[in-house]
Amino acid sequence: xAQKWIRSARSxxxxxxxxxxxVKKATMTTYGDIAKQAEAIQQLFTKYERPLSExxxxxxxxxxxxxxxxxxxxxxxxxxxxxxxxLSLNRVANAVLRLDGHSRAEEIIGKLSDGDxxxxxxxxxxxxxxxxxxxxxxxxxxxxLTAELVDPPDIIWDKDGQKTAIACKRIYSERxxxxxxxxxxxxxxxxxxxxIAAFQLEDARIPKKSTLNNVSxxxxxxxxxxxxxxxxxxxxxxxxKYFTKDRLSxxxxxxxxxxxxxxxxxxxxxxxxxxxxxxxxxKQRVLELHTALIKGTxxxx
Length: 301
Hints:
Layout: E1 3-7, E2 14-18, H1 31-47, H2 54-71, H3 80-96, H4 105-112, H5 126-142, E3 147-149, E4 155-159, E5 162-170, H6 177-191, E6 194-200, H7 202-205, E7 211-212, H8 217-234, H9 236-243, E8 250-260, E9 264-273, H10 280-299
Parallel strand pairs: 5-6, 6-8, 7-8
Antiparallel strand pairs: 1-2, 3-4, 4-5, 8-9
């Protein structure tokens, strides 16, 4: 895993770029495990008296079908959509099951059942917006950070009594990205302390029902990192005005996509972006987050 910092020629913004291993690959062992996750999701929604959406029910059903066909050695009979749906369920379950026992579980689980949540479509729904918050929160916990789901902003990260507000934005269209960023900054400032705007780009930058095929793991990672960097470069002027006033500590960009290497799995790449002229305290905060992301993806090997 190679780490480097890229300086933007236009603004001097430093981007710490890390070639990270796919976060989700290590979380799935067998198709039987995904079927068990489907059962656990159904039990979780029942426990908090929230109905499964039609879309989430379909993902659970696909996970069960895939497991049964695998056991019968008949997976060749299945259309690719079943595998895609099962892996979408795996991704959802890895994060959502962590909500059990959370003080806001009933509210959040209700939102997660409001519309489509899979990776196959890109329609904006409450479920998809909520899932990005839960997924990022889950990943922060998994890498050892102390974080809580709070509305607003979306996540509060606490380190040594210092709080960082994280506003999570799922991007569906880039026509008014300055408005989305402005909303994120207002959420951050309302919470006080340091601030990070976290964007998930898959709905805006990954074509519907697409996969990265015939590529190595490193090549898949480079493609997704390239998508992240292109997004940051194209919208740099909007971020810069918040960095220069210390109103934003960093921007985090993530892109997820199906990738076919030896098997089909979900590849997620993260890019953290900041400015060299930020205060020492802001820089330290960004470095701590970046270090945790590196460690977390390294541990997922």
